[in-house]
Amino acid sequence: MSLTKEPMAEGILKLSAGLDRYELPAGLAGSELNCHVNIVPNIATSDEGEMASSASICLVFDCSYSMMGTKFDLALNTAKMIVDILHERHRLSLIAFSDRSSAVIKNAVPADDEKDSIKKQIDKLSSHLGGSTNMAAGIKRAMKVLSECDTDANIMVILSDGKPNSSEKAQKEAKLASEAGVQLFAVGIGDSYNANQLLHLVSPSNGAVFGDSEESRITEIFYDIIHRIDRIIATNVKLSLTFDERIELMQAFKISPERSMYDSTNFISDADNVELRLGNIGDNRIHELLLKLEAGSANVGESDRIKIRLQYDTYYSGEKTTQDQEVELTISYTPDDTQTSGASKKLKNAIRSATIVQLGDELVYVCTTGDKDRALEIIARLEQYCDMENNEALQQQLDNIKNKVLKGKRISDKDINDFLLAITVAAPKAELFDLILTNPGLETIRLVREIRYATDMELRRIVDIIQRRNSVVTVFKSKSAAEKLQQRLGNVGAETKINAREVEEEDEDEEGEKTVQEVS
């Protein structure tokens, strides 16, 4: 029996949710449930320009003594690279922090005729070098600067090579930023930063942590972050969960686009309602969550409901609208005490991802306590999950830690950082590649011939694509195939780009997931 409902009306995000069990035995308290929440972008690439959001991006750069030398030079060059690639609809700020914090750039417009001037301001960052790592002051200053600018999204990107003077104060300021609607990202550079602390900083805002001991990779990481910001189509995304009184939320996990565990202290909750902030969502990434629930005792024939409400702001040609969507799930209590699972393939994958995050968190803890036997038990379980995902990057980090545990060697900060970052990488999803025509050039007849030869498309449709610009020519399952046609169209003077986007895989199980109902 399919449990899928067709949406009454479509928003730019598509919400669906499902449980691993819709029936629980009556009279039994403490029954565990898993709820999978899926949010998929639902926007045509041809609408990309009209749906683009503006963002205030505040770079918060560590200028402590330890950043001196090549790391600081890299930070300067990275900031200048961002100026070069940033669209003028965005705003750029730069905060320096060491013992204190200073605003080097405040809400600059990266227009072509302003880029050189902004880069000269970036060079002034050098005068702030020296001192300790007062990250809390940097976040607080960034919040003040962001509050002075009116854009669709507020985003903070922290770059640091070390641990903050006070992780508690930094955490407090990050939480305040999250509550104000700011999404935080953090980038660790070198071997001495603490990835675990950075994860706690960004998780309340549904941000992400990146890092690398190879300094040359940092510029590439920032490029990817800016590209991600550039594709935002929904801002101030919130997920509201309402449970009947017998249902309790025990834990929440983000499954994609990165994996992490929500800290329950960051839930906004009252009575039977919980709100999770999801920050901003782009047009090319699926967002998934797994909610671990527990049900109390009920009589035969009784039922409980779970309401999942998605709310977000979106912009079309500069006009803001707020969209609400809701899914309702019902749990029934039966006399049968056989607890069978009807989990879909997607839900099973989500449960596996949540377990990986949970085990990873425990492994970090036992490595600090020196519990060798428990560490090896956790590693063995994680290795099984790595095999299921074919996750070579995580397996490599597990091999490193396992080798050191067996030999009684110290697990370094770098070992922990590399392991945690490997854990956060979500299991790969299926992708499609849109080939988009941005400029047809002057050889229109030759262009029509090439498109028709490659796609067998009707002439009228080809003409429409050429006239509209920024329309999808065709969609490929592999990037290499898209690149081949891109080269052929380029040979006749046309300009194109390839956009990758995640897509939902078909579910092989009978049980489906309930999809959105539009809320007026």
Count of individual helical segments: 14
Mean pLDDT: 87
Based on the coordinates given, report the CATH architecture of the largest domain. Answer: 3-Layer(aba) Sandwich
So what's the CATH class of the largest domain?
Alpha Beta
User: Which term fits the overall shape?
Assistant: globular
In the CATH scheme, what's the topology name of the largest domain? Rossmann fold
Estimate the strand proportion.
25-35%
Question: Which sheet architecture does the biggest sheet show?
Answer: 7 strands, mixed
Count every beta strand, where a strand is a DSSP E run of 2 or more residues: 22
Poorly predicted residue ranges: 1-9, 516-520
Number of domains: 4
How is this structure best described in words?
The chain is of the alpha+beta class and 520 residues long. The protein has four domains: 13-48 and 234-340, Immunoglobulin-like, CATH 2.60.40; 54-230, Rossmann fold; 346-424, no CATH class; 431-502, Ribosomal protein L7/L12, C-terminal domain/Adaptor protein ClpS (Ribosomal Protein L30, Chain: A). Helices cover 35% and strands 32% of the residues. It contains 14 helices and 22 strands. The protein has helices at 48-51, 70-85, 115-122, 135-146, 167-179, 195-202, 217-230, 345-369, 372-389, 392-407, 413-424, 444-455, 459-468, 479-490, and strands at 13-19, 23-25, 31-41, 55-62, 91-97, 101-108, 153-160, 182-189, 208-212, 232-243, 247-256, 260-261, 268-270, 273-282, 287-295, 303-316, 319-334, 431-439, 471-476, 495-502, 514-515, 517-518. Strands 2, 10, 13, 14, 16, 17 and 22 form a seven-stranded mixed β-sheet that branches. Residues 1-9 and 516-520 have low confidence and may be disordered.
